[in-house]
Design a protein that fits this description.
The protein is α+β, with helices and mostly antiparallel strands and 612 residues long. It contains 17 helices and 17 strands. Helix 12 runs antiparallel to helix 13, helix 13 packs across helix 17 and helix 16 packs antiparallel against helix 17.
Length: 612
């Protein structure tokens, strides 16, 4: 005996010499802490990217709303102006002859400058055949315009001559007698309006500057509305034969567009409008960015291009954000998340390292405490078993995660094209291992809360059947992967006041156990109840539980099967019972070895200590 004790003493001394001092830094001992730090940093990076994406989406949505509002405002304004020109055509349709004074009075009553920003003039162009031209000129001179002459001069088969134009200022007076059909920029719109019977807009038309008022020519366009003699023509040939002329409006693009009101316009969002389907400087109708950018949109700016049709003529609208838009929509949330994540990762590293050091210290102390009482030895064995199982359960997904990351690293640095399918499978495996780690850590946290009495229930009205069906849908993929048919039977609604999150945890633990130990046999989930309580049953047809183990499986760290064959910490049913009892309910099981197990949960519908 003495020799054996001496040998034990020497062996203990040898072990003491081989055990490193906890205060000495060692890479292998710090590996869990470093792993926790890396995991925290990874989660921080993912969370920061997610929050930043949310900020970007909100910025893009705000810009998209402004684009939609600006486009709608432009179209509504043009619809209103078209209605005004159609009303002006009604003046001519309702009278055999409209005198110049009548037309001037009508245009003045419209108060066009105040009500229709951007409109420069409203006029009427009379449709003439070649053999009527001389009589038309003579009649107009007799009406008080002695120098009147249609221009440009020359013989043409048809004419569209401006005979009325308001307001009658010097610039507009100089346009009387102009044959707009002879102008190449006007011909397509006139022909289109004549043959379709609908208002038709010209392309880009430059308006000559007025001496002393405008320093340069300004971009604009005209809209022509055809006027026919009754009855209303139905065919292009009839429209040409019955055409009497065109009511038209001349518009200045700058005054028209700058009167629009939509969010951010001219403060944080610029608008460019081009004549036609292409973006060309030569076709620029309007721009709110002055001076013009030298080379396309600014870096980081949002840009959207779309095409609208204005009275048969396509316009290209280009919306672009200014730098100030990015500044006012910038958020500090990503930086806050990143900062908090870094702090939490550091704290997790320190806590994990402290736990590892504590474990080392405990293992060394356990060697010196071998003469403790049997009860203390049993407690140490339970603790060591739990730590071993927990380390195994945590190491398994970490090892798989590490291997997958190494494979991904090699694939990313190999020559040749990347195999995206292999990359996707690797990332999916990493995600599954992360989910498994999260569940294990959550179980440990729940045990901590239950032990310290810090578990608080947030009661709310719930329909148990709906919650069970929702949880079953979450297990569909897992059940399919295991080849298990998962059936849910909820014949009638069962409502009560319960904590939704904790009931989800109860259902998750019971269903996951049924899938794990069911050996591929069907799993049934049933919900029943009466006016006072609800009853939840989860039945599998697997290995079953022996009668002597039926009571202890609800205890902490207890399990009815070997941890070598089935993973887990032995905490699921313990947490389940604690959560059910916290609601004022009870849980028990009915089982026959080899035929399966049924877990039965009773819950008061009024909640713990609540009224009906």
């Amino acid at each position: 005996m003495r020799g054996r004790l001496e040998g034990d003493r020497l062996a203990l001394e040898a072990r003491d010499d081989s055990v490193p001092n906890p205060s000495t830094s060692h890479p292998r001992r710090n590996a869990p802490a470093l792993g926790a730090l890396l995991m925290g940093l990874l989660i921080t990076a993912v969370a920061t990217a997610y929050v930043q994406r949310g900020v970007d989406l909100r910025r893009e949505q705000r810009f998209e709303n402004a684009v939609q509002d600006g486009t709608a405002a432009l179209l509504q304004r043009m619809d209103m102006y078209q209605a005004m020109l159609l009303g002006t055509r009604g003046v001519f349709s309702g009278s055999q002859k409209v005198e110049r004074t009548e037309f001037r009075a009508y245009v003045e009553s419209l108060e066009a400058r105040q009500r229709y920003p951007g409109i420069q003039s409203i006029g009427f162009a009379q449709w003439l055949q070649r053999d009527h031209l001389a009589r038309h000129e003579a009649q107009t001179r007799a009406e008080g315009l002695p120098g009147y002459q249609v221009r440009p001069t020359g013989s043409r088969p048809e004419y569209a001559v401006v005979v009325m134009l308001e307001p009658f200022n010097p610039r507009n007076a100089a346009l009387l007698g102009l044959d707009v059909l002879a102008e190449p920029a006007h011909q397509p719109a006139l022909r289109r309006a004549m043959e379709s019977g609908q208002p038709s807009a010209t392309g880009l038309v430059w308006q000559a500057p007025v001496a002393g008022e405008e320093p340069e020519a300004r971009a604009g366009f005209l809209v022509y509305v055809p006027l026919y003699s009754p009855p209303e023509p139905r065919t292009p040939e009839a429209r040409r034969a019955q055409l009497e002329g065109f009511v038209f409006g001349a518009f200045d693009m700058r005054d028209l567009v700058e009167g629009l009101r939509f969010q951010g316009f001219q403060t944080v969002i610029d608008l460019d409008i081009y004549d036609g389907m292409e973006v060309r400087e030569a076709a620029l109708l309007y721009t709110s960015s002055r001076p013009r950018p030298a080379a396309g949109p600014r870096r980081g700016a949002l840009n959207e291009q779309l095409t609208v049709h204005i009275d048969g003529t396509p316009w290209t609208l280009v919306f672009t954000t200014r730098q100030f838009f990015l500044e006012v929509t910038r958020s500090t949330h990503p930086a806050t998340v990143a900062g908090c994540g870094l702090v939490m990762s550091l704290l997790l590293f320190l806590v994990t390292r402290a736990q590892v050091n504590a474990r080392d210290s405990a293992e060394q102390a356990s060697v010196e405490q071998q003469r403790l009482a049997s009860e203390a030895q049993a407690a140490v064995r339970v603790r060591d078993e739990f730590l071993s199982v927990a380390a195994h359960e945590l190491r398994t997904p970490l090892t798989s995660l590490k291997l997958q990351l190494q494979l991904l690293f090699r694939q990313l640095h190999q020559d040749g094209p990347l195999d995206t399918e292999r990359l996707e499978r690797g990332v999916e495996t990493c995600e599954r291992q992360m989910t498994r780690l999260t569940k294990l850590v959550d179980s440990l946290l729940d045990v901590s809360r239950l032990s310290s009495g810090r578990m608080e229930l947030q009661l709310e009205p719930l329909e148990l059947g709906e919650l069970v069906r929702e949880m079953a849908r979450r297990f569909e993929m897992e059940a399919q992967a295991a080849g298990v048919r998962l059936d849910v039977d909820t014949p009638q609604p069962i409502t009560g006041r319960w904590d939704r999150l904790r009931l989800e945890q109860v259902i998750t633990n019971l269903v996951s156990n049924a899938l794990k130990y069911g050996h591929g046999a069907p799993v049934d989930v049933r919900v029943r109840g009466n006016e006072h309580e609800a009853r939840l049953e989860v039945q599998d047809r697997g290995i079953g539980i022996a009668p002597e183990d039926a009571g202890r499986v609800f205890d902490r760290f207890e399990r009815a099967v070997s941890s070598r064959h089935y993973g887990g910490l032995g905490l699921g049913l313990f947490i389940t019972r604690q959560l059910v009892e916290a609601h004022g309910g009870s849980i028990y099981l009915e089982s026959t070895p080899g035929q399966g197990t049924t877990f039965i949960v009773h819950l008061p519908r009024a909640g713990q200590g609540g009224g009906a």
